[in-house]
Amino acid sequence: MINKLKLAALGLFLGVTGTAQEVEFIEYTLDNGLDVILHKDNSAPVVTTSVMYHVGAKDENPERTGFAHFFEHLLFEGTKNIPKGEWFKIVSSNGGSNNANTSDDRTYYYEIFPSNQLELGLWMESERMMHPVINQQGVDTQNEVVKEEKRLRVDNAPYGNILAAVKENLYEKHPYRWATIGSMDHLDAATLEEFRAFNEKFYVPNNATLVVAGDIEIEKTKEMIKDYFGPIEKGEPVVKESFVEEPITQEIEAKYHDPNIQIPAIVLAWRTPSMKERDAYVLDMISSVLSDGKSSRLYKKLVDDQKQALQIGAFNIAQEDYGQYVVFGLPLGETKLDTLVAEVDEEIEKLQTELISQREYEKLQNKFENRYVNSNSSVAGIASSLATYQQLYGNTDLINEEIDIYRSITREEIRDVAKKYLNENQRLKLEYLPKESEQ
């Protein structure tokens, strides 16, 4: 058992107003392999119970994509002791709220309850893990739910397929190449036995992290966790397959046609290292320099000053195995897509050859300090962060230490990392076009 007692207050950094305490937590592992993290905060009578399973879209069969996201919905259908359709009623009638989300790397379920309902939250999550009811009726019901979600958020949403178009061109081998929501044809073709096998493989205690954060008593909470989660049988070891992509050495040119848009877009994307690498943190800062706020370089130049873009953004999408660094732009008026590309390239070249100013650097540090304070401002946010750092980074202490990584990044590193990754011959250039356009 590791006991993390960290209560030293952080001082103000570079003029940031407000303070944040380091997050105190305790972590240990049950005999069945379930990792447990407890965070006590008695400042408000609220508690978050959450479970993160180390399964995402990348763990799917290429012929059965969408399973992880499907299970995000399916595991609310009911359990041996929670009848179909009753999950949300139980939560709301006891003053709580709940939700779930899925990424390429993990699936996360959580409830927020008044702290006197802690035991209820633990019971419900243990029921989801131990006694899920996976039958044809539930599969059929959630199949329609997922199809409607895909229609609303992807198929009929303007620019809804941008990330999918990026991923399918950036990756050849890695399962990041398909969208998290997956293929509806794959889900239609799947058998009940395949869904049950997926559950038995991945939704087991030795592939999960339980976090309880908020107004709790540690020893009492440990006893409840032992009672509800201890009897759950350990699953077979989950072996993760590794996929290595060859470096991109020549610009990839691609087009995608979207019937839901009228204004074309340009997307530049680079494959970048794992979020666990220091360079990924530097890329976070580069994206902030380029497009975070109206005073950022790309926004000020292309939107405000030159009136060439309706919208411009640079995003570092950090993931467990690889990341994607994406620049997205919508042209204004008669501006050509290639013009936006040239202007973006000019700003990236400046980052690659010149140090950002000291004033810009201090502003950047202020932004990341504020993000850190805000990320630890609620027990729900802390619970999510604790699970993420423990499961995906393998270092729960990062909840307190990650800000020091950002603080230590130098102007020289920003220049050097931009030069290392953001080169024309290492990228995808995607023209995202209206259906009838061939611009």
TrEMBL record:
Q: Which family does it belong to?
A: Belongs to the peptidase M16 family.
Per UniProt, residues of the Peptidase M16 N-terminal domain are 36-176
Q: Is Coiled coil included in the keywords of this UniProt record? A: yes
Matching InterPro entries: Metalloenz_LuxS/M16, Pept_M16_N, Peptidase_M16, Peptidase_M16_C
Q: Does the keyword Zinc apply?
A: yes
Which UniProt keywords are present, listed alphabetically?
Coiled coil, Hydrolase, Metalloprotease, Protease, Signal, Zinc
Q: Which organism is it from?
A: Salinimicrobium profundisediminis
Which positions fall inside the Peptidase M16 C-terminal domain?
Answer: 190-367
Q: Which ranges form a coiled coil?
A: 334-361
Q: Which residues form the signal peptide?
A: 1-22
Taxonomy of origin reads: Bacteria, Pseudomonadati, Bacteroidota, Flavobacteriia, Flavobacteriales
Q: What is the name of the protein in this document?
A: Pitrilysin family protein
Q: Which GO terms describe its biological process?
A: proteolysis
Molecular function (GO) terms for this protein are: metal ion binding; metallopeptidase activity
